[in-house]
Amino acid sequence: MTARFTRPAAAVAALGLILIAAPAWAQQPVRSMTDAPAAPISLGDAARLAAGRAPSAVGARARAAQGDARVAQVRSEFLPQLGTEATMDGGPEATALPTGTYLGGAPRMVSERTVDVRMQATQRLFDLPTLRRLRATSTEADAIAFSALAAEEQAAGRGALAYLELQRADARVAARVADSALAAELLGIARQQLNAGTAIALDVTRAESQLASTVSQLIAARSARARAELELHHALALPLGSDLVLADSLRAPGGDLTVDEQAAIQTAMNRRGDLLSAKHARRGRAEGDRRGEGGAAPGGAALHQRGEHPGRRVRQPRLRHLRQPQPVRRLPPRLAGGGVPRASGRRMRSGRTSSCASRWTCGGPWWTWPPRGSRWWRPTSSCGWRSRKWSRPASASAPAWLSNADVIQASLTLNHARDIVVDARTTWHQARVRLAAAQGTVTEIQ
Description:
446 residues; Outer membrane efflux proteins (OEP); 9 helices; 7 strands; disordered N terminus
């Protein structure tokens, strides 16, 4: 009896251990692929990753595989074909023989069967319609393959541009953080000056307003950075939970920036997938028309749609570029022979004057502008701009220290300059990507 219940008891004990340990296993975190430390990716890595994972590129490669399968299907008609055939005559019906009987006078029953097995092998040596169909199908498959290459290049370009947008967003966030730190420092200085009696409360209010504006710009920059990261995830076809670490930065352009125009054009003609796809598609249509499957001649379908005869020559309308008449502006008779007088110098507010003032002077044989005797008149026989330097009085010289408003204005100028630098570097890198996209070499960017 003891030996009979040994195995069931062991099974029950094992089941109990499994049930006890199951909650402990459930509490342990499952390490997924997103928990692994993300490897930094460069601009070229982003382009190649987008070319390999983008849905448009994946679908284009699937269509290219279908085209290759159609080529293999048409080519199979030239392969040797083996056929077999088996027949069997006769059956279980018994026939009585005229001679020979069993004992007792009963006839002897005999059953006869005939089996016929045949094998046939055929090989096409020359089939012109099938050969042309094979050529057309192969050309169409090549066109589809080059279309897939073009889709990969487009996906790589989108991935590279999304990578640059995220880099720009990171640079702007860093710039706004620096601006916020500077605005906070200026606010502290303004409060110290107010406590010392060398500033007014308006300076503190101005500094607080500048700090609030900078903080709001920082929030907007972080929002733009989050949107750029989502766009990069979408371009690279990565899950939203994956971490992205950028290996490159918006570095300044360096080295030789000249581009050989003829070499770039030749590279584009040899490497761009859309151009190669269009070339092979045209060859495929020509093969289809040659083997008679295209129906009418090229352009015949369009002629039938317009109700024209396919063999009739259609005269294309010519486009004439008409020159629109432009209104003629006539000068007054007194100004028809000379320049137009203009005064541009002006006196600035708060008692300060501009650094220089310019007047248009023109002297002719019959009249002179400005009038003779005025303070702007200069004896001359030709037209041109004349400038007069203004001298700043000694009492109006700039003070040795700057006010709080001047410091705030300088900080705003610095913020704008940082944005200009970031945009300029991003534009240069985008130009690199667009040049590579025009040549069909986006996936080769380093």
